[in-house]
Every structure is written in structure tokens, then in C-alpha cells.
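ok so I'm stuck.
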Amino acid sequence: MNMSHRRSITYDKGLFHLRTEHSSYMFRVTPQGQLEHLHYGAPVRDADAEALSLKRAMPYGDSVLYTGGGAAYCLDVLPMEWSGAGRGDYRPSPIELVTDAGSWTADFEYAGHTITPGATQTKCGLPTAYGGDMTLAVLLRDEAAGAELTISGFVATYGNWVTIFTAVAMCCFAFSTILGWGLYGARCIEFLFSERITKYFMAAYALVAILGATANLGLMWSIAETFNGLMAIPNLIALFLLSGKVVELTKEYFSGEGKTR
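replied:
not stuck anymore, here's the structure
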């Protein structure tokens, strides 16, 4: 790929910068997940991003509150790369999405991106630019709409009755998961500390359950996946420390099995 250092696409800590010899196109991912347009025009540096971002000093009465955004974070005045609908942004959205439940709200948040050499043909029939050195594809996801679209797939296959079945099944699954993990955590706390500490753990666990049911869905899934991954660390350490005991018990089992025969 023959490309000078002046023609490039870079990504650094949420900041996208598309450069040519005579221009810069810059946007960033806000802490809340939306794409904020920063600059298109004469070449600028990455260090200029903060100066080019929108400064919010006063709260807006029609703001939809986001975690960490404060009362001054309003999508309607944020120069967005892609508008949603029903979440405080009143500009026309490039997409109209209506679920079977009748909801037309769409809140697209950054979920990932790819940077590939050359021009990439789109898979959905949209216009494609030819002759470029690199292609940037940004993936946006609406977590709530994704869940509703999953239910829509079940409805299309099995009929409308499956919505009731899915709702009941999800409630049973969620309730049993809360009880199971609570008991599992209480037994671990009792083993590590004492039975007296268990009641404090259960009180904290109940508060966390309420937080998980009311906070941002994408954030909760990220936290859950992170802690599920961290559970591998003590398990791997325990397996390593007990490997000798496992070998000993395995030999004992097979030696005894041979004698019984």
C-alpha cells in the first residue's frame, strides 16, 4: 500500500482522525458512546481535539440523562456523526426503526470499528467510494433494539404467543440467577471470613441487583463480562496448586479400579 504519512486514518483513545494532504476529518467517541463530530477542514493535530469539542456549561430542560454525562449533556445540541431518535436528539435520523412493540426509539452507541486498506465494497448496496487508500467502518449498536429484534425473530417463526413465553422464561431465568449467584457468593464469603459477614454481603448484593436493573444495559453487560473473565484467575491458580493432588487421586483411583477387577 503506497500511502504517505499525510494520508491516513488513525484511532487513539476514542479519537478518529482522517487525514489528506490538505484536510482533516476528526470525530470522537463520547464517554456515553455517541460519535461527536469535531472538525472537517484545514489540517489539525490530535492535540486540538479537546479545543474543538463542544463545551457544555448550562443544563438543558429536554436533556435525556446519560451515566456520567451530567445535566449539560444534550444530544440535540451535540454535533453528532449519526443521529438516533427519541433520546433527546430531534434531528432527522438516517434510519427509521419501529419494533413490534411499537417503539421507535433508537440510541446507537459505538461498539467497534475496522480500518482496512483500499476501498471496501458495502454489503448493503449503499454507494461506495473508489480509489481510496484506506476504509474506516464504524459499528454502532442499539442494545435495547437488539433485544427487541431478537424477540421479533422468535415471533416471525413461532407466532405472537412466544412473546408471553419469552417474557415469563426471562423472568424465571433472571430470578433464579439472582438467587443462585447470591447463595454462591454468601457461601464464599462465609468460607473466607465468617458467617457474621454474610448478612452484610447479602445487603450489598441486594443493592447491586437494584442498580443492575436500572442502570445502562450496555454498561452492566460490560461489567458482568469483565468479572466473569476475572473469575478465571483464582480458578487457574487453584488448578495449578492442586495439580499434584489431582495426579495423586487419579493414580489412586485407577490403581484401585485395577485391583477390583
